[in-house]
Amino acid sequence: MKVAVLGAGSWGTALAKVLAENDHEVYLWGRNASQIQQINETKINQKYLPDTVLPESIMATTDLATALHEARMILIVVPTSAIRQTMENLNDLLVNESQPIIVHATKGLEQETKLRISEVMEEVLKPELYEALAVLSGPSHAEEVARQDITTVTVASHSLTAAQIVQDVFMNRYFRVYTNTDVIGVELGAALKNIIALGAGLIEELGYGDNAKAALITRGLAEISRLGVRMGADPLTFIGLSGVGDLIVTCTSPHSRNWRAGRLIAQGLAREEIFENVQMVVEGILTCKAAYELAKEHEIEMPITEALYHRLYENASVAESLEALMMREGKQEVSLQKHLEQE
Ligand SMILES: NC(=O)C1=CN([C@@H]2O[C@H](COP(=O)(O)OP(=O)(O)OC[C@H]3O[C@@H](n4cnc5c(N)ncnc54)[C@H](OP(=O)(O)O)[C@@H]3O)[C@@H](O)[C@H]2O)C=CC1
Ligand SMILES: O=C(CO)COP(=O)(O)O
């Protein structure tokens, strides 16, 4: 099958490798001509995945029309901030005879609109141009997938048939794919875990130990689930790969750009300085603002997200934010059931 992978960063490149190893015809689209030329000439994406030699068969291109021509599947792996523009480009270039399945693997919320990725896609894309939308998510660092480490992910779509097609296209001996129909839960788990990972990096840098890490992951999952359920997600999704699975991988690994950014927050760097320093996408910083506003809108308590928002957007001190978090009034632990009863 011809698959167009749009986004030649670390994750787009690693997924293109999986697809090429599964014998698909893979076109990898990126916007940077010298980077694309380098990938074609050396089979290495020097900036984003320098330790990986890519299969010969991957064709990298800056020409979106070439990548899209007769593709049966389109995999979108650009950062959240580029999703809307990318969809507008698809509207101009897709022809409705081919009607591909469009899958995205992006983890964020659009900052201005607070929409999930597939909501932005549905808002922009002409419906007659595609067969179905799906989202691929789960605990999956690009660097590990690229070296064929065992990885499990979830593909969610309102169409189970579409999810099964995507499952078949990606599955192999090191990349196992589960299907799911809870698009809301899978997308929210993916977007919100990046905020908690900022917190994990922050407490690591401050020298806190495993108790603090476990507290953050567990209470992070609680607030993600609270907002998710209010927004229509299935609560069980959050104990799956795209929920707790991705929280664990992102909150405990130096591979995570969000985790690394959290360490820089603790060092006192401001948002722009962090972007400059990490040199790769840090979705959690932008999503933190959208999630903070969504929590207010839905009257959901998200204390970890709030604390990070105050630090990142209102310049609160890290020590004050942590103190405020710990010294809130005492709570009952398991409130999800109570929350469900209120729905
Ligand atoms: N890396 C990982 O392990 C994983 C990442 N993800 C998610 O995948 C998404 C992409 O992340 P990732 O590949 O890691 O990011 P990287 O920072 O590694 O790469 C970002 C890529 O997006 C390109 N890009 C940036 N802005 C635009 C734009 N406006 N139009 C087109 N291309 C653009 C960059 O191009 P340029 O070099 O020209 O700036 C670069 O190729 C994120 O949402 C991330 O959360 C999900 C799972 C795992
Ligand atoms: O989503 C990821 C792993 O599942 C990657 O997280 P980072 O964007 O923090 O690197």
From TrEMBL:
Its main location: cytoplasm. Keywords: Cytoplasm, Lipid biosynthesis, Lipid metabolism, NAD, NADP, Nucleotide-binding, Oxidoreductase, Phospholipid biosynthesis, Phospholipid metabolism. It is found in: Cytoplasm. It comes from Fundicoccus ignavus. Signal peptide: none annotated. It holds the Pfam family NAD_Gly3P_dh_N. One of its GO terms (cellular component) is cytosol. Belongs to the NAD-dependent glycerol-3-phosphate dehydrogenase family. Its EC number is 1.1.1.94. The gene is gpsA. This is Glycerol-3-phosphate dehydrogenase [NAD(P)+].
